Amino acid sequence: MVQPMSRTNRDACRRPRTCSRLFVVTASLAVAVLIACLGGASRAAAAACSTSAGATSCSITGSLTLTAGTLALESSPNLYWDFVGTGYDQWASASAASLTGCAASGTATHCSSGAAPLLEVLDATGSGSGWAVSEYLSANTLPSGYALRFDGAGSSTYGYSQVSPIVTSPFAGTTPGNVCDYASSCTAATAAASCSHSALGFATCPAYSVTMGGTSATTQVDLYSATAATGLGAICFASGTPTATGCSGATADAYYNLGIKGTTAAGSTSVTTNMAVNSGP
User: Fold this and answer.
1) Which one of 91, 130, 174, 268 is least enclosed by Cβ atoms within 10 Å?
2) Would you tell me the crossing angle of helices 7-14 and 27-37 to the nearest 10 degrees?
3) What average pLDDT does the structure give for the chain?
């Protein structure tokens, strides 16, 4: 004789979904129906998919391998300053493009064009070791008594100078800021509190503004050190939001400020700045 499903079984079916008009012949069948009503029938893992045999269901196994990349630096290859003598000491931030239309404006110099230099660190190592950007100078024929400093502050307009004693930078000493480059889910850099690269010639962290110098690969000057677990990905020394790779659209936040004396003779001089980025702050 067919027995109707017990009230207990009917109620269990109704929790996840409606289960009606189910009848069982034996207790074991009632259990099977209950499992089916709950939608929890045990499903064996699907067999692996095949390119030679079809199946109504199968599984695909995916693997990912990521090979560590390198630690690299991108920078504008040229820096330009252009002063017109006024008898006063002048300071100006380097431009990445040739300056034109430069003329004296009272005690200072104004130029009609200029472009922000690029400075970017690409940490694709995945190590989280942090890094240090450093430099040394060579082929230096800058005029006697010059001052060259790296800073997070500088001229508001490239090609415009400010008047200040050669021993006193007119720009506030500021740690350069940084943001993620376009399409880089980076971890922005945090300036390290402990720095040591004795093989490069420094064992302390920079204080801004940094007086640029050094004479060789073993006597470098630390410009910026990123603490461990920061500075991962593509890091622009800039503010704002890049709109394309290479920090395009962002506002540069790393300045190369040059000061010259009011007694500097007219002429053209130059300096080569050798840049490097090394693992570890």
Assistant:
1) 268
2) 20
3) 89
- Residues 76-91: b if buried by 16+ CB within 10 A, e if exposed: beebbbbbeebebbbb
Would you call the peptide bond into 105 cis, given omega within 30 degrees of 0 as the criterion?
A: no
**Cα separation of 106 and 97, whole Å?**
24
Q: What is the Cα–Cα distance from 34 to 41, expressed in whole angstroms? A: 9
Report the alpha-carbon distance of residue 22 to residue 69 in Å, rounded.
62
The answer to whether the CB of 260 falls within 8 A of the CB of 143 is: yes
Residues 6+ apart with CB under 8 A from 201: 136, 214, 218, 219, 220, 221
Would you say the C-alpha torsion 28, 29, 35, 41 has a positive or negative sign? positive
Q: Can you give the pLDDT at residue 43?
A: 60
Q: Which residue has the tokens 């990123």?
A: 226
Give per-residue pLDDT as tens, 64-88.
999 999 999 999 999 999 999 999 9
Q: How many helices (H) and strands (E) does the chain have?
A: 2, 18
Distance between CA 203 and CA 48 in Å, rounded? 57
Calculate ∠ Cα 90-96-255, nearest 5°. Answer: 55
Q: Which amino acid is at 210?
A: V
| Tokens coding 264 | 């500097």
Which tokens hold the place of 275?
A: 């840049």
| Residue 216 CB neighbour total at 10 angstroms | 12
Residue 16 pLDDT exceeds 70: no
Tokens at 181, concatenated? 């480059």
Instruction: Give residue-wise pLDDT tens across range 25-34.
Output: 344 444 443 3
Contacts of 89 (CB under 8 A, 6+ apart): 163, 164, 165, 166, 259, 260, 261, 262
